[in-house]
Design goal:
GO terms for molecular function: antioxidant activity; oxidoreductase activity. By secondary structure, this protein is of the alpha+beta class. It is built from 4 helices and 11 strands; from the N terminus they run E-E-E-E-E-E-H-E-H-E-H-E-E-E-H.
């Protein structure tokens, strides 16, 4: 599987340039698409010898990765708060699943955190399954480690499980490259979960003075739960 370079506008967050060899697969992401110039925080990879050191660079080239219709990959991850192991199969009975890649320290996540909780509480009552995953390395960001994840989940009363992807394999399987990153899947009967929305929470950013509403993600969830088609025009995170 070919690895593509991550991209971002000049004022955005930096994504990572990855090796293209199969031996480097465990330290590579499959980026998803171009990012807005306000950007988000990239997930930080752990590097181990003899894999070539990852380089950070900025570019305006579009990246390629998961597309709509992508099937949710299997995962088995622990929830630091409770110690429980969660898998994709735990959500099989739900008509829709929202997978969020977040972390503790990211200012863009902090900006949305309370509203992510509000949105999740609202739609979980309507039948949406929600799970959050942190894939950041505790070596580079100790504040994103399991102990602090548990404290964060308790402090903000997360209604969803907040799972730790220590190996970062799950982030690679999803093609997640930044935080926050939202993947909304729908399920028809016994069919696997299929991706129907991979876009932003809303237009608000920490520095643009736009009120947080969750509009973009809310509209997508409303469509999924009501059986309506979702617009293919989706703004990147």
């Amino acid at each position: 599987m070919a690895m593509a370079a991550g991209t971002v506008a000049s004022t955005g967050a930096y994504l990572l340039q990855f090796p293209r060899t199969l031996t480097a697969l465990r330290n590579s992401f499959i980026p998803t698409r171009s990012f807005s110039k306000l950007g988000f925080h990239p997930l930080r990879l752990r590097t181990t010898a003899p894999v070539r050191k990852l380089q950070v660079r900025a570019a305006r080239t579009d990246s390629k990765g998961v597309s709509l219709g992508f099937r949710a990959p299997h995962f088995e991850l622990q929830e630091p708060l409770t110690g429980k192991m969660w898998t994709l199969e735990d959500f099989e009975s739900y008509p829709a699943l929202l997978v969020m890649f977040i972390c503790n320290h990211c200012p863009f996540v902090k900006h949305l955190k309370k509203d992510i909780v509000k949105l999740s509480n609202f739609y979980m009552k309507k039948g949406l399954a929600v799970v959050a995953i942190s894939s950041n390395s505790k070596a580079t960001h100790p504040q994103d480690g399991p102990k602090f994840m548990a404290e964060e989940a308790k402090l903000f009363n997360y209604p969803f499980p907040y799972l730790y992807d220590e190996s970062q394999d799950v982030a690679r399987d999803f093609g997640a490259v930044c935080t926050p990153e939202f993947f909304l899947f729908k399920k028809d009967g016994r069919r696997p979960f299929e991706l129907v929305y991979h876009g932003q929470f809303d237009d608000s950013r920490p520095s643009n003075n736009v009120r947080v509403t969750g509009r973009d993600l809310s509209l997508a969830i409303d469509c999924v739960l009501s059986g309506q088609p979702i617009s293919l025009v989706q703004k990147p995170r």
